[in-house]
Specification:
The chain is mainly alpha-helical. The chain has six helices and no strands. The protein has helices spanning about 5-45, 50-60, 65, 70-85, 90-105, 110-130. The longest helix has about 40 residues, at about 5-45. The protein starts with a helix and ends in a 29-residue tail after the last helix.
Length: about 160
């Protein structure tokens, strides 16, 4: 025996409310990702690269699932340029190549001035790789630490700790 129509309406109403709430949360979640991308861009533009990089790294796991193709291109460009400015050239080259590939596949996803800077930076990084090898981009390839001055050869007196 079927339940009367009135008895089913509250169940349908609750289902509809739950569905609307989940859609609302999903929209708020997307807005949060967009807000974080905008915050990271502002940090980059204000030369607060460490902050920008922290935001980028927190967004990275959600890049494919929660960003449009244009937002992915923006993320890749900004992440690459941030890594470049911090000195993480291997990562910079990776993200700039990603941004370049997206911008070539989908025209208009990056502003022209960004594309110019991206191409110049990529050309510089590629030239370094082609002439000196990929190892030279590694952030661990820093100049050897200067030797510390030797401690005084004077023997300690008995009352010195």
């Amino acid at each position: 025996m079927r339940a009367p129509l009135r008895a089913r309406k509250p169940v349908q109403a609750r289902f509809l409310l739950a569905l609307l709430a989940s859609v609302g949360l999903a929209l708020v979640g997307c807005q949060t990702y967009q807000d974080d991308l905008a915050r990271s861009q502002r940090a980059f533009e204000h030369a607060d690269y460490e902050r920008a990089l922290a935001i980028f790294r927190s967004l990275e796991p959600d890049l494919i699932d929660h960003f449009s193709l244009q937002e992915q291109a923006q993320y890749a460009y900004l992440r690459g340029m941030t890594d470049y400015r911090v000195g993480y050239k291997v990562d910079a080259r990776h993200w700039l190549v990603v941004a370049h590939a997206i911008s070539e596949a989908q025209r208009g996803v990056l502003p022209d001035d960004w594309k110019g800077r991206m191409k110049d930076t990529l050309a510089e990084l590629n030239e370094q790789v082609y002439s000196q090898g990929i190892e030279t981009l590694s952030e661990s390839q820093t100049e050897p630490a200067k030797a510390r001055p030797a401690a005084s050869a004077k023997p300690k007196s008995e009352d010195e700790p």
